[in-house]
Amino acid sequence: MDQIQDDREWSTQEPPYWLKPRIWLAKTLELVIAVVLFLWLPVAIVVSRVYKWVRSLLPWKRRRIVKDTVVVITGASSGIGECLALEYADRGAKVVLAARRENRLREVAEKCMQRGARDAVFLKTDVSKLEDCEKLINFAVDTFGRIDILVNNAGTAAVAAFEEYPNVPEFQKILDVDFWGNIWPTKFALEHLRRTRGQIVVTCSVAAFVPYPKQSFYNAAKAALLNFYDTLRIEPIGERVSITIALPGFVVSELTTKGPPGHIPKWWPMMETDEAAQRIVQAAVEEKRYIIVPYWYIFNLFYRTFAPELLDWPPRVFLLGKPPNKEIKMMCEMLLGEENTQKLFQKFTAFT
Ligand SMILES: NC(=O)c1ccc[n+]([C@@H]2O[C@H](COP(=O)([O-])OP(=O)(O)OC[C@H]3O[C@@H](n4cnc5c(N)ncnc54)[C@H](OP(=O)(O)O)[C@@H]3O)[C@@H](O)[C@H]2O)c1
């Protein structure tokens, strides 16, 4: 392992002489680099689109064959994970299902066999526990001799504003499942995936780039996952193991329908679970880097870049019952008074 930098000999206020030309370069080129990158952007987009299109025409274009491959799926006892298992079963895979609820896993395994899986086994696993993740990967390899695809899907969420969390262990639990619960299985499966030129599919979330109130740790974990797997892709392992990151918006599942109220507006559009799973598996088969379901959430990326404040407004109004920003609040208070403004915006949360 390369050294971890923790012992600096000089302070950043007084950098050594050999760094000064580079600092000067950064200062003088700040505008030039920005302009060049800006002008290059449309060209780069066109070039990359054309490259992708040409590649898609090549007769040897890589498409992953799922039949007879070994697919390990975490969080397979319900929701998106269950539907992903059924999708892989439809395509004739051997599936290894993992989650904490054994009775649910048994039912999903039976359904997978009915849908055409070559085999379906399951193991009770808590992905927040390192030893459980190691056992899961060993179990898959002992049972089938190999792993071709690892689907990191297990996830959990809590609905609370940061200041409402009672203590540190409470929010650590979320990261243990939503972040480390992806990393541990990946760590143990990596050597097997390297051998089979396998694939990692990650159920991340659009929450990785769209802020959503009362979900700070969930959002942070998903953002970390997105960066973690994007980084893995450009490390040497990325040459042998392909990575598809799924970024769902709201999809029907226990997470979105059985959670505490006040989390999602009742009128908010939600995608069917099996449709989301079908699109994710199709993208994985085509070895796409990302798949956003539903697709329209992609526009949030543009808002995030060019008008981030507009992403804050709807959740403030519809979930928190607050005016979208300070200026509108002041204006409303001038026209209606403080109490009426409060009452007016509280009305927006009636359908939450
Ligand atoms: N539904 C959405 O709108 C949406 C949107 C974006 C992203 N996602 C992501 O999609 C993934 C699946 O969620 P879902 O919507 O399908 O919700 P879900 O139905 O609640 O499924 C969550 C799955 O994760 C498992 N799980 C939770 N904690 C676990 C743990 N400690 N160890 C092992 N398994 C655990 C659950 O099984 P057990 O309880 O049996 O352990 C369950 O199978 C999650 O990563 C979620 O963040 C969902």
Automatic annotation (TrEMBL):
Record keywords: Membrane, Oxidoreductase, Transmembrane, Transmembrane helix
Pfam families: adh_short
Transmembrane segments: 31-54
Cited Gene3D superfamilies: NAD(P)-binding Rossmann-like Domain
Name of the featured protein: Uncharacterized protein
Assigned protein family: Belongs to the short-chain dehydrogenases/reductases (SDR) family.
